Amino acid sequence: MTMEVRRMRRRVLLLSAAMALLLTIALPAGAITNGQPDGNNHPYVGLAVFDYDHDGDPATPPVPGWRCSASLLSPTVVLTAGHCTDGAEVARVWFAEIVQGNPEYPFGGSTSF
Q1: Which residues, including other chains, have CB under 8 Å from residue 103's CB and lie 6 or more apart?
Q2: Of 104, 92, 9, 20, nearest to 50 (Cα)?
Q3: With the CA atoms of 91, 106, 96 and 100 taken in that order, what torsion angle do they form, in degrees rounded to the nearest 10?
Q4: pLDDT tens for each residue of 25-62
Q5: Spatial distance between the Cα atoms of 61 and 58, rounded to a whole number of angstroms
Q6: How many structural domains is the chain composed of?
Q7: Is 5 domain-assigned?
Q8: CA atoms of 19 and 22, how far apart (whole Å)
Q9: Reading across the β-sheet that carries 45-52, which strands appear in turn?
Q10: What does pTM read for this prediction?
Q11: Any domain includes 62
Q12: Which domain covers residue 77, as residue numbers?
């Protein structure tokens, strides 16, 4: 085995060890659980509810399916993640700090801020 091959193997081994070490110390994603309203600190961030066709019958209206955050870009344009719109027929967006108690908000409850 030549010296060059040994050096290459050593580099690959060191790189593999470094990657393994990085993977073991990686922190989990910081999802927000039981968050609190922050007042008016983010006035252009809203909550979008996406409705979908649950039964394939055009005579029945779509039902609420999922929620995503959304950013207001202009009075008529809202930006959200692309995966949020997959399968959605209708979207409704709220910019109120608390939607709890709003009769149009479909996911009411004591923790629905």
Answers
A1: none
A2: 92
A3: -170
A4: 866 666 666 777 777 888 889 889 999 998 989 898 88
A5: 7
A6: 1
A7: no
A8: 5
A9: 77-79, 63-74, 45-52, 90-94
A10: 0.59
A11: yes
A12: 45-94
